[in-house]
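Appendix B. One record, verbatim.
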Amino acid sequence: MPFELLIAQLLGGAPLPAAPPIPAPSSSLSCPADMRPVEGLHYEFIQRLCTSFHSDHCFAFLPGVLAVEPRATPIHTCMDTYEWPNHAGVVPAVMDRFVDAEAKCAGVGKRLCSEFEWEQACEGPETLPWSYGQRQIVGACNSDKVYRPVSEAKLASNDPGVWQAETKRAWQGEPAGAYPACISAYGVHDLIGNVEEWVTTSRPEWPFRSGLKGGYWSKPWTGCRGTNERHGPQFRFYEVGFRCCKDPGGGG
């Protein structure tokens, strides 16, 4: 439904049309055992009604009210269950550049996920704002920790000992799967928080082919939408990781 029509109906008291039935997540795709099938129709732009707004961010939306706008993109992919290296109980890797992440995915016959694939995996078939529901829940994902200042000069050092020590000092990530509630309808873990994830951008207005999704351990407002598009393929940071995707039944 166009957003303008939705607002007009809400303000005029007119009844809203019944929402179309939400299909259950498909399990028809052929994916490797360490990946989850993600299939659905992704909408490039969506509008919701915020019911809890503070600190310049929305922390809850009105259930059942959603306006979708073009473009619509069918999604059919296999996605790593966890952040790289994609093993339950193992901490995710960080300080990989976008090009490094591309190479690592390619090395195991996969590829980086696209921006739209990532959003579909997070939102699920109900197009939720968080992978677990309509309201931000403190403690559901690793996204609520107090920020620790970091030295960007040390992180940018060419001496691995220096940037590794600073990364370790500032680290507040958790092993993959440590937050059982932080799972999407498709069975993908830790899309919200923990570490930001490299994706290939799908929106033509972004300046780079690289983007970051999901926020990290000190970004409590992070959700399924919102792309950090400001960093090019050579950027690396102490809270940036990735996960891989793969075309179902075939190559990356």
